[in-house]
Write a structure and sequence with these properties.
Two copies of one chain form a homodimer. Chain A has 317 residues and is an alpha/beta fold. Chain A is built from ten helices and 20 strands. At the A-B interface, strand 16, strand 17, helix 8 and strand 18 of A face strand 16, strand 17, helix 8 and strand 18 of B.
Amino acid sequence: MRALVMGADGVRLLERDEPRAPPGEAVLEVRRAGICATDLEIARGYMGFSGVLGHEVLGTVIEGPSDWLGARVVSEINCSCHRCPSCAAGAPTHCPTRTVLGILGRDGALAERVAVPVANLHRVPPEVSDDAAVFVEPLAAAMHAFDEVTPRPGDRVLVIGDGKLGLLIGLVLARRGDLKEARVLGRHPAKLAILSRAGLSVSLASEVLSSGYDVVVEATGQPAGLARGLELIRPRGTLILKSTYAGGSALDLAPIVIHEIRVLGSRCGAFPPAVEALARGWVDPRPLISDRFELRDAERAFVRAGEPGVLKVLLAR
Amino acid sequence: MRALVMGADGVRLLERDEPRAPPGEAVLEVRRAGICATDLEIARGYMGFSGVLGHEVLGTVIEGPSDWLGARVVSEINCSCHRCPSCAAGAPTHCPTRTVLGILGRDGALAERVAVPVANLHRVPPEVSDDAAVFVEPLAAAMHAFDEVTPRPGDRVLVIGDGKLGLLIGLVLARRGDLKEARVLGRHPAKLAILSRAGLSVSLASEVLSSGYDVVVEATGQPAGLARGLELIRPRGTLILKSTYAGGSALDLAPIVIHEIRVLGSRCGAFPPAVEALARGWVDPRPLISDRFELRDAERAFVRAGEPGVLKVLLAR
């Protein structure tokens, strides 16, 4: 089959062996796959990954347990042992022996077909379109931002960053009618307009904002974003870190101590709440789709995904 | 009166006007005052403070409300308005208009006498010696490390740093008989020996430690300390930042996101629990006293406090 592969000579569309499903796994025929900022980072060497890229996938089960055959499914990306202390403690996304679809030790979904553990599958109800369903993984990550600390009624909440993740977090917040302020700070008027239409307050990074936010979500992946967050948060506020930074960033962390800020790192989220949010229409991620390609044009799709101002690029059958 | 003053020409013992007590304040005759790492930082320009140094103080009330006259007291260092939203929310240490004794906009206690708000005073019971009582402020800060997240029975807890603050945090932990491991990581065998005698596990920084700590307290003030903490903490563990860093430190914060670490900044603590810990003998900080001087030798005391390996230097009457 054809697959978009990260290898020694970069990201290439190559012919690969068909995936096989050992006991406990299933093979999906890929219907939609999304290209994520993490994929672009991997292409630059992040995680040292080599193999088939892609971890945002909607597919049809074509091999596996009979009760799953033919099902339209999304797949969680952390493939965990379900036996170790982390898994037993309800944190399979931190299983120390996990593989991660298209990121760590396991081929991903920017391909014709992909093998995944049956335990990772979630059926997608018919009211969720293919285009929406492929957002389940990033939407789950966005919703997970507020799993440990959920903004309280009357809070002022600020999201910094108008990339795909920042926008999804904004769309999640747009459902909260009980906040004093829900604002996304970004650099791209066209992206912020998606949020304005959803009812959020938006600001360009150059604007002067009044500080004292109860909750700030950092979703820029830039040290400057974190520094801005530390300026705008109230003492004892919660700063949620959703994106990673290149090593060696120069940062003044003294404000964290002086103002007793709570900094929470946040990565992957649970799929069922994200599937439900899409099924009920609470979040519509489809305005984030910038472009779509067939798999045979995957190399071009990957380049397109890295262009400035581009949001989600899908590979669609 | 004489006072140790931070000014344009550095830290000098100078003649100053007597402090006055406006309504709501009291004047203390200083019995003991401690020199803290923060004072040494201020001498290097931290906080841009100029005035009388010193925020660790035990004194006798010689001017103020009649029911306080003659009382042997310690004084909290944050002088707050007690009316603003921060104060009303129970966070007077974050009052935006606060002054801070010897740190921000208010003369400190490395002097013959000092003025403080009556609301900041706490009586010291007779069973607490002068030498122990002068540790109330740093002990309160040490105990506050665990106010937001208290280690659970069976947890593994690591303190990084064997300076004064790290040692006090270690002594607080030494009372916890219900932890799987309570360890302090440091660089000075003589300092770590104080903790060994109190029953704690200790390690030199060069030792290989088994990772997976549930709670890590960073008390070195060095970016390398935070980096080591991020290596040694378990996924979803709690990392408590107790000391500030110079701006521009190069740090890789990606592990905070990948392992979903909770980072808690922690500064000043409440005095009553610290007074009680001393009164009951739960913590004995006196082994941390390296040296003592009279006020007339305060400049020499200040130099001594900055020498390598020196712990607490007191000014004592």
